[in-house]
Amino acid sequence: MQFGGVVATKIDDWKIFTYLEELGYHSAWAPDSQMIWSDCYATLALAAHHTSSIRLGTGVSIAGTRAAPVTAHSIATINKLAPGRTFLGIGTGHTAMRIMGQNPVPPSKFRDYLRVLHGLMRGEEVEYEGQLIQFLDRELECINTDDHIDIYVAANGPKALAAAGAYGDARVGAGNEPVSLFHRNMDRMRKGAEAVGRVLQDDFPSAVLTYACILRSGEKLTSDRVIEEVGSAALSSLHFWYEIYQQRGTDAFIQAEVRDTWDAYKTYVESEFPAERRHQYLHRGHCAFTPDSERQFITPELIRASGGLIGEPDEIVEQIRILEAGGLTETLLMPPVAVARDNFKCFADQVIARF
């Protein structure tokens, strides 16, 4: 198992990337959410300049906010600074699009986006919106496509999984999937690969974006320190569920264990946030901090349902071993900003050291 750190992209805190390298993390990821954080590529450029071994990439870049050739060019620019240790995480834009009141990129457009990325990042000529394009003036050496850049596709739905199998080098999922679901998703990716003449190996890289909190003696899920470490991640589940509720027009998918919390949250959203600006408020604090007004919704039931790695070190190691045996190859942690360094160090000392 390999381990990565995901940080809320803040350009004047680039030193957190060097800190992750010092702690022994395998990778560091900079998310691409333009309405709430710094630019991911500018931040990665600083990280690349100040690190030497840790793998660097987007966690994830958004297909709906940047044209595919621009994304390919941006990550190939980072690869010029960090050759051979650069990767691209790419997704449809759950947060980055919805925070503007827009829908994520639909599966068919996402698939074509991946096709263009796949070709350009291999130095090939590709068809883009009816025209043939390729990177030019390569003798100036402004970008680097000679050193391979892995494409990590954020995929959960069947069409996105098929596209990931067709054009991706790896998959990144959200939440700790049960092994049975993980295998089903891998099967969908294999079928997507077969459709374009590819064969996915059994060790095809697969990462999961999650969070962790190592419990201290006597701590419970209601302890203040625990809520400080896991609250923003747990709340992001509520934010996501509300988006799905709006999309489907029903909340029948909500688990019984969190029904009371969900009902209270839904009432809060619809009474506090005007409909025409609701999209601006729904993702406030997204995985980075806990808004004071939403702390009331962080219940033990919500924390359990949000799928993080919470427990004593032995318990967390066991959880990860089970996921690893099922085929997962990398665990990515995203702690809130205020406690990120402490969280990363605690996890490195008490969990990563045992792998």
Structure report:
With 355 residues, the chain is of the alpha/beta class. 43% of the residues lie in helices and 15% in strands. It has 13 helices and 13 strands. The protein has helices at 15-23, 40-50, 68-81, 94-98, 107-120, 158-167, 179-194, 224-248, 259-272, 278-281, 300-305, 313-326, 340-350; strands at 2-6, 27-30, 55-58, 61-62, 86-91, 126-128, 131-133, 150-154, 170-174, 206-210, 212-214, 309-311, 330-333. Helix 1 runs parallel beside helix 13 (340-350), helix 3 (68-81) packs across helix 5 and helix 6 crosses helix 7 (179-194). The termini are close together.
User: In percent, how helical is the residue content?
Assistant: 40-55%
Biggest pleated-sheet summary = 8 strands, parallel, barrel
Mean pLDDT: 97
Instruction: Please give the order of strands in the largest beta sheet.
Output: 1-2-3-5-8-9-10-13
Rg from Cα: 20 Å
CATH topology of the largest domain: TIM Barrel
Q: Proportion of β residues?
A: 5-15%
Count of folded domains: 2
N- to C-terminal distance: 7 Å
By CATH's scheme, which homologous superfamily of the largest domain applies? Luciferase-like domain
Given as residue ranges, the uncertain stretches (5+ residues, pLDDT < 50) are none
The computed structural class is: alpha/beta
Instruction: Note the run of SSEs as H and E.
Output: EHEHEEHEHHEEEHEHEEHHHHEHEH
CATH architecture of the largest domain: Alpha-Beta Barrel
Number of helical elements? 13
**Strands, count:** 13
What top-tier CATH class of the largest domain fits best?
Alpha Beta
Characterize the overall form. globular
